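User: I've been trying to design a sequence by hand for this structure and keep getting stuck. Would you show me what you'd pick, starting by listing the structure so we're on the same page?

Assistant: Good idea, let's start from the same input. This is the structure you sent:
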């Protein structure tokens, strides 16, 4: 089984397009995940603010 450090190292060796796809997928999974609100290590308000900013920058 891979540790998060091993996964990070593998991700960073990918081409930029593939890293962008993974980042987008990971981001979207956080925005839509109801368990984020109950996780003390994740700031749901910060996620919401970032999602709003992301949506605003998309339409510029």
């Amino acid at each position: 089984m891979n540790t998060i450090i091993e996964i990070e190292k593998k991700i960073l060796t990918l081409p930029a397009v593939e890293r962008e796809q993974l980042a987008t997928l990971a981001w979207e999974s956080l925005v839509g995940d109801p368990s984020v609100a109950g996780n003390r290590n994740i700031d749901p308000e910060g996620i919401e603010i970032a999602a709003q900013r992301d949506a605003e920058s998309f339409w510029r």
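That's my pick for every position. To get oriented when you compare it with your attempt: Helices lie at 4-12, 16-31, 44-58. The two ends are 42 Å apart (CA to CA).
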